[in-house]
Amino acid sequence: MRLLQPLExxxxxxxxxxxxxxxxxxxxxxTIIISIYTVILAVFLPIAHCQQTFVLTDGIKTNGxxxxxxxxxxxxxxxxxxxxxxxxxxxxxxxxxxDELRKLYPKWDSLKKSAFTSRSLVSRQNPSQKVxxxxxxxxxxxxxxxxxxxxxxxxxxxxxxxxxxxxxGAALTIHPADGLxxxxxxxxxxxxxxxxxxxxxxxxxxxxxxxxxEGFHLDDTDSANALLTTRVADATSNLDNYGASLATGSLxxxxxxxxxxxxxxxxxxxxxxxxxxGNGQVSFYFRExxxxxxxxxxxxxxxxxxxxxWAPTFLQTKPVSGCTVIYNLPFCDKVAYAVPTGAGKTPNxxxxxxxxxxxxxxxxxxxxLRQFPCNExxxxxxxxxxxxxxxxxxxxxxxxxxxxxxxxTDSNAVNGVLRQGRPRNVVIEQAQTTLxxxxxxEISPCIDLCYNVVRSCPALFGFGCPENKTLFSSYGERLxxxxxxxxxxxxxxxxxxDWSFTSGVNSLVWQWITLFTIIVAVAMLL
Length: 526
Fold this sequence. Notes:
The protein has about 525 residues and is α+β, with helices and mostly antiparallel strands. About 35% of the residues lie in helices and about 25% in strands. The chain is built from 13 helices and 25 strands. The strands form 7 sheets. It has a 5-stranded mixed beta sheet with strand order 1-3-8-5-6. Helix 8 (about 345-370) packs antiparallel against helix 9 (about 390-405) and helix 8 runs antiparallel to helix 10 (about 425-435). The protein is elongated, with a radius of gyration of 38 Å. GO terms for molecular function: calcium channel activity.
């Protein structure tokens, strides 16, 4: 037994040594695993941080989506093709910024210098840098939790100075194209919100642009329809290049984002056509709107490779159905507003009734105008040195259409004159009988229309305008500064004509002009 004890002790000691050795191996193995895990994290953490990287084609927009807490990255494909390293340069930057990775590549500095020698040579031979135009539009649901960064680093969002402000859903900036990267970051991961957006990068110019100029002129509304005419579009352009959206309610701070505007559109565009009416060139007619409701109208275009969104126009539909918007009349082609009407007639039928009444009256005028030698080239025979029959005919037509086709407004509106009982002229009385409408509130024609007839037609024609005492029974007047509106209220119906040449001219001045015209005409006939 005593002989066995040393052997037992030796065996126990050997066992303890084996256990210690195993523990040491396990410890070393754990250390190795941790080291490998650290290296893996060092290598792949930046890649995981990127989450998603997308390559854009120069000059082409793309749609994107992102969830709260994530970041999407974008760069131009042409940039990668022009570089020697391509995707290797992405990892090159990651190695440069990570000390652990640099230990794994002790010869990295020399390798990097060799790899980018050709690129540096090209840069020296082409000192002028291309400029990239970055356009980002937030589509939904809001822009308050989205951040946009533009920089030349691997992770632009790490550079706070690279943040681009988002103005009502749109972010625009210019940056050197070389090495450009865009980061779109959805902050506040607790929201768990899905965001959508559009992004485009171009070296030729912005793919999207917001114009601070109001795109539309509001012609008029009724209780269910609205007519607007563009201020900027050229009638000779392709109508398909121009579009319009009508929005209501909250825009969620996205009023400068075209993709958001299109998603919020309500109502239907019934007709879009070119017109020479007023200052606009393309008209849009919206239908199926709600009565007594406020809307925001947006005009946008797509010409060349750039989409443009103009500043919005605000409008409100009328509360009752006693007025109907008519436009595109064959004779009174400048009429584009709501007129008094009864039930049972379509807008086209209503327009035809008014237009025929005005046209029939005009035919009698043209017969009388033929009695005057107003188109003679001789100064002795002509009634005016600066006007002829064409001017007279056009002025009379504008005036006739305005007094024959009354402009209807709300019965509760602060502007306008309530027409009760018999209408103010026989022609409107005929329309009232045919259309079966009752009392209505009218925005009277501007007195400028009458003054223009006096100025443009022969004095012996005997056409005169009322003085101040009786003027407001049939006409309205502009402000002294030439404005047709007082705030949002239209003071008189200008027939969408440009009266800037008479800005500030009052009725007394026009009386002197009329007297001078008569004196000149009489002198020519003597």
